[in-house]
Amino acid sequence: MKQYDYLIVGSGLYGATFAHLAHKQGKKCLVIDKRAHLGGNIYCENIEGINVHKYGAHIFHTSNKKVWEFVNSIVEFNRYTNSPVANYKGKLYNLPFNMNTFYQMWGVTTPEEAQAKIDEQKAAYSEELRVKNEELNLANEPHNLEEQAMLLVGKDIYEKLIKGYTEKQWGRKCTELPAFIINRLPVRLVFDNNYFNDKFQGIPVGGYNKLIDGLLEGIETQTNVDYFENREYWEGIADKIVFTGKIDEFFGYQFGKLNYRTVRFEQEIIDEPNYQGNAVVNYTEREVPFTRVIEHKHFEMFGTEVYDCPKTVISKEYSTEWKDGMEPYYPVNDKQNSELYAQYKALADKEENVIFGGRLAEYKYYDMAPIIEKVLTYNKI
Questions:
Q1: Is 365 an annotated catalytic residue?
Q2: Is 264 a catalytic residue?
Q3: What is the average per-residue pLDDT within 140-144?
Q4: Which class is domain 4-80+199-258+332-376?
Q5: CA within 13 Å, CB half, 263
Q6: Half-sphere exposure of residue 173, counting CA atoms within 13 Å on the CB side?
């Protein structure tokens, strides 16, 4: 009989939730992580009394009541509502695109006026594109992201709020990006700055470490441990392995390496209580090198609490071309990488004693709530 029922490689939300549920069922678990801390990318670092989202902004949102009740059984969540602002050449626009945005852009005050303005710009570009495609003897359809976006929302919204931001995110011009990247651009004809449509939304009171610590309470954990440095040992101490790392690394990169997108952060402590008045401000012009600025205190401090804390911490976020050795954040869902992942997935399906879960092991972008939902509905623990 082996020492543990489960060895869980990675202490992010998938690994921690799995360990929590297995532990409740009487299973003996060991969670290891190669980083110096638990929590994966939702880890928070306390700086000047502020919980700083070390690996980028994380806002929990879901319409699944079971998931919401589960996380709130671990830690209380606050009332934070994600309402980002876009800064384009010094002018501010509310996001997502809503009546506040359209008033700021055109001075329109009714949904009818806003829709008419959008329709007018869409129609004008549709005709422009038709003529262009005809001259080039191309099918009358969008052939890149720029054309697709202009057909969906018109010139003003595209040029001020989409173009520069998207080009910084992808490191390529919108005219060089495929049209399918943007299938739809939601336009809301209401004065509502809530970015998400979900019923439930918030941040754990005291930061995400409280959630991870609660999930892993009573469970043995080890940090600064690289599974691959002593793989034979780790595989020998547990009946089953839950693997949340990179799937290509698990199989020794035998088909080649998957690509990822990554982000880089520049953190700054500022000697004032309120730097930008909002947690998230996107910089949508191409000439500003960072994509957005996160002011972390606004995730958890409201009203006078903002000024009771005399300093603030900001993170400037840069989209960066991923190179081997960098922190992998997002999968690249193009044809080449999807086909490569399918080869690794076929190998994973043959592993009887290994469960692959999470963003890196499934090579799939996940919000936090769907990760928890997936583990909650997993019936083989």
A1: yes
A2: no
A3: 95
A4: alpha beta
A5: 21
A6: 3
